[in-house]
Write a structure and sequence with these properties.
Blueprint lengths: L1 H15 L15 E6 L10 E7 L4 E8 L1 E4 L7 E8 L2 E17 L3 E14 L6 E4 L12 E4 L1
Parallel strand pairs: 1-9
Antiparallel strand pairs: 1-4, 2-3, 2-5, 5-6, 6-7, 8-9
Length: about 150
C-alpha cells in the first residue's frame, strides 16, 4: 500500500511541477505600411513594379508588382533611409521617428512602437507626392504613408 501512495505522490508532484510553455502569439514590432496611389485619381490604388531596399541592406522587395508594402523601421536608431525603384528610376526617402519600447508579456518580451514619423527629405524622380496618413506606428492594420505616382 505504501508503494502505491508513494507512486501517486511522485506522479502528482511531477504533474504539478511542470511549467506551462508560454508561446508568443501576439503582434511584435510593427512595420511601416506604404500604399501606392494614382496621382490622377488619389482615391485609387495603383500597382507599381518595385524594388525596395534600405541603405546598406539587401533588397526587401525585388521586382514585385504591389500596391502596398510593409517595411521595417530600425528600433535601434531614430532614422532610416529607403530607396524605392520603379523600373530604372530610383527615389530616396529619409524617415525619422521616435522609438518606444513596450512590454508585451513574459513570453513575448518587448516590442518597439514608433511615433512622430516624419519624412525629412525625399527625391521626386517617379514619386509625385508623399503624405503621412498616420505618424504613430503601433500596428499593421492601415497604411501609414501614401505615395502618389
Amino acid at each position: 500500500m505504501k508503494k502505491y501512495v508513494f507512486a501517486l505522490f511522485v506522479a502528482l508532484v511531477g504533474i504539478y511541477s511542470c511549467e506551462i510553455d508560454d508561446f508568443c502569439s501576439l503582434e511584435t514590432t510593427p512595420r511601416l505600411i506604404i500604399s501606392f496611389y494614382d496621382v490622377e485619381d488619389p482615391t485609387e490604388y495603383k500597382e507599381v513594379p518595385l524594388y525596395a531596399w534600405a541603405n546598406e541592406m539587401d533588397s526587401i522587395y525585388n521586382a514585385v508588382i504591389v500596391d502596398s508594402i510593409y517595411i521595417p523601421l530600425d528600433p535601434s536608431a531614430n532614422s532610416i533611409t529607403y530607396k524605392l525603384s520603379h523600373t530604372k528610376e530610383v527615389d530616396q526617402i529619409d524617415f525619422t521617428y521616435e522609438v518606444d519600447d513596450v512590454f508585451v508579456s513574459e513570453s513575448c518580451g518587448f516590442k518597439s512602437t514608433f511615433k512622430n514619423l516624419k519624412i525629412v527629405s525625399n527625391t521626386n524622380v517617379w514619386i509625385q507626392r508623399i503624405d503621412i496618413s498616420n505618424a504613430i506606428i503601433e500596428n499593421e492594420t492601415q497604411a501609414h504613408v501614401k505615395i502618389y505616382h
